[in-house]
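Q:
Got a chain?
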Amino acid sequence: MSKIKVLPVIALLLLSIAVSGQAFKLNAQLLKTIDANYLKGRAQYKLMMKSLEPGRFPKTFEVKSNKLVTSDSGWWCSGFYPGTLLELYAQTKDPALLAEANRMLGLLEKEQYNKGTHDLGFMMYCSFGTALKMDPKPAYREILINSAKSLSTRFDPKVGCIKSWNGKPQDFLVIIDNMMNLELLFWATRVTGDSTYYKIAVTHANTTMKNHFRADYSSYHVINYNPETGAVQKKQTAQGYADESAWARGQAWGLYGYTVMYRETHDKKYLDQANHIASFVLNHPNMPKDKIPYWDFNAPNIPDALRDASAGAVMSSAFLELSHYASPKEAKVYFNTAETMLKSLCKAPYQSLPGTNAGFLLQHSVGHLPQKSEVDVPLTYADYYYAEAMKRYETYNSFK
C-alpha cells in the first residue's frame, strides 16, 4: 500500500468542511423528549441485556412468538448493539451499559479479519469507531485498521467497486448499502497516512454514482457487474418492491453515504449528489406527512403499505448533517425535515412503550419484505441511527 508523504491537498480536503453557517432554534419540547428518551433507552437496553444469550447479538423481536431473534458476530448488524449501548452510556453514564458494550466488543473483535463481508464499516466502525471516540485506546485503533485492510481486499479495480455479496463467479454484485462502509476507509487514511483506503472509497463512490442512480436520482438496490470487464450486466432489487422501484432504505443509504463523501473529500460533486437524492425523497408524492417513508416509495398498496422506521432514522441523521453543508435555503428544509422525522419517531406508533419490544427503542421497521423476513419489526440499525439522530439534533448548533 502506498504511503502519503507530502499530500497537502488531500490533507486539506480531509480536514476541510464547508458549512452553511446556519443555526436553527431547537424545539424545546423535542429536546426534553430526547433527554427522556435516553433514560427510557437505558431501561430498554438493560431489559434487552437480560434476554440476550451468551455469545449472541440482537437482531429483531418476533412479536407473535415473543422471541428475541439473535445472530453471531459475523452478521452484518452485529456492531449496532454495542454502538447504541455506547451512545446511551455517553448520555446516562450508567456503568452497566458500558460493561455490556465492552463485553460485546470482545465478542466482535475477531471480525476485524473477516474478508467475507462488505459490511465491516457497519460492524466495526459503528462499534469500535464509537468506542474510539469515547476512549482512544490503541487497541481500538489497531482493530479498525485491520478492519479497513480486510474490507479493502473486496475492492476490484476492474469494476471500480467493493464487492457486496458473494455470488456466482460470473457476477460481481454491489448494493447501495455499501456506501455506508466507506467511512471506515476514510478514517483509515487519516490515521495511517495510507492513501490506498481513500482512493478505494472515492473510486467506489464514483462508480456507484455513475451506475446506481436513475435520471431522477432514485437508486437501484443492486448492480450486477461483469467481473472481467466491469460492464453493468443487470440493474435490479433484492429488498425492494421491484427492480425499477425506489426501496426506501436504499435511498436513505445513498443520502447518508454521499453526505459522508462530501464531508471527507469536500468535493462538490458529492454534495450535489446528496442534494439530488434529498430532492427526490422530499418531493416524492408518496412521502408521508410525518416524513417516515413507506418501505418502498413505489409500494403498490400505498397508503396502506408498511412504513420503515429504520429508513426514517437513517434519513433523519443524514439530513441533520447535510443541512450543515447545504445552501441556507436547503439547510432550512433539511433541518425541518429531520426535526419532523425525529418528532414522529419519538412517539407512537414508532417508539416502543417502556418494558416492551424486547428492549428495542423503535418498532415498525421493514427488513426484507420480498422474502417475508423482518417485516414490521424492531431492528438494531433503526435504534442505532435513531440514537445518532437524537444526539446530532441536541448538539446541532455546536457542530464542527
About this structure: The first strand starts at residue 57 and ends at 62. Residues 14-30+248-400 form a domain with the Glycosyltransferase fold (CATH 1.50.10.10). The beta strands are 57-62, 67-71, 155-156, 161-162, 172-175, 222-225, 232-236, 365-368, 373-377. The longest helix spans residues 28-51.
